[in-house]
Amino acid sequence: MSKRELTLEVMRYDPEQDTEPYFQSYSVPCEQDWAILDALNYVKEEIDTTLSYRWSCHMMVCGSCGMMVNGEPSLTCKTFVRDLPDHVRIEPLANMPIERDLVVVLDDPMEKMHRARPWIIRQDDPPPPDQEYVQSRAALFKFKQYTMCVNCMCCYSACPQYALDQNFIGPAALALAHRYNLDSRDQGKSQRLDILADYDGVWECSFVGACSEVCPKSVDPAAAIQQMKVDGAIEWWKQKLPGGKS
Amino acid sequence: MSRRPYVRPVSNTRWYLSNGRYRRYILREVTCLLVGFYCFLTIWALAVLATGSADRWNEFLASQQNAAMAALHAFALIYYLIYMTFDWFQLAPKAMPLQFGEHKVSARTIILAHYAAWAAVTAFVAWLVGVIP
User: CA of A122 to nearest chain B CA: how many angstroms apart?
Assistant: First the structure.
């Protein structure tokens, strides 16, 4: 298989030496079936061992190799050289502070994911140890797509709302809350109302839809958020109707 | 080794110029200016009606019947069809997914149902105002 020379323009930042990031170019002889992650690994192994970036599984499962590839938030293990021009610009995920080179600080979105209470909440007693919560296939299909998230944070990187207001809970956390709200085994919807109805919750989303377009796992967080808005509006009207719960 | 994370600046006023996806979004959102214009037009018309003067109402109607207003209405209609009707109907399956048992209704079917409902309502309104017999 023939090789193809690719110019990688990589954003570099060393917190101990640099006042701000800058770009460094590398010429990489790529195989046609390489992903951008392979090209970065080539740089790391053959050209410049100081380059820092995150990766682990190389198979779209760990979600750790998210970066901006020519301005688009992407999993670099899923972004192939054959689909890109000869000059590729690689930056750390947008909307998050740069720790070093292509590594970003993920603390804020990770904390928000936790605020979604991403676990099954029950109001009743747990079942006996020899039993489980039964769920039909139809009930599973209601939320299955939202379980596919690999926490790559490409959606946060694509979201202009999060870029402008970092108090916004954000796409992945809201999709995660929706995933548990839709789960027939869960009874914790009311406990997740704060992130739904809060000023920084679903109503901060103005439906740009970029989160869903860049999601490498087709989770479609924008759909989850719009459905939560419908849920929120229905709950609000229920409270306003005569005899409604307060 | 010390931590000193670098925060990249984001422009509050020019962020939407950074990619085509954001520009399309802004083109959709500026339809609010046309909504504002039609609100103003309606309030103006109601204010003229409230005077109770037939002459002033006829003057108002005459002021609207010119090429510039016709062009503005045509522009508003086309702009809305492209950036609101089409865009929102495309997005409808996200906000209103339908599932029967294990079967999810396709996005295409939901979008087509919206166009069918739109055509039916348009035909009804056209019949109501006498455009079609």
Answer: 24
* Chain A residues closer than 8 Å to B94 by CB: 212, 220, 222-223, 226-227
Q: Is the pLDDT of residue B64 over 70?
A: yes
Does residue A90 carry a pLDDT above 70? Answer: yes
For an interface test with A, the pick among B2, B11, B15, B21 (most A C-beta atoms closer than 10 Å) comes out as: B21
* pLDDT at A194 > cutoff 60: yes
User: What local confidence, expressed as pLDDT, does residue A128 receive?
Assistant: 75
Q: What are the residue ranges spanned by the domains of chain B?
A: 15-76
pLDDT of res. A246? 55
Reading the block at residue A22, the tokens are 């800058």
Residue type at A168 in one-letter notation: F
CATH 3.10.20.30 fits A3-104, yes or no: yes
* CATH number given to A107-240: 1.10.1060.10
Residues of chain B contacting A16 with CB distance shorter than 8 Å: 1-2, 4
Residues of chain A with CATH 1.10.1060.10: 107-240
Give the start-end residues of each E strand in B1-133. 99-100, 103-104
A188 interfacial to chain B (CB closer than 8 Å): no
Q: Is A29 on the interface with B (CB under 8 A)?
A: no
ipTM: 0.90
Res. A86: pLDDT tops 70: yes
Q: What is the pLDDT of residue A197?
A: 80
Backbone angles phi, psi at A159, to 5 degrees: -80, 115
pLDDT at B1: 63
- Which tokens is B11 given? 């422009």
Give the rounded percent of residues in chain A with a pLDDT score beyond 70: 98
pTM value? 0.91
**CATH 3.10.20.30 in chain A, residues?**
3-104
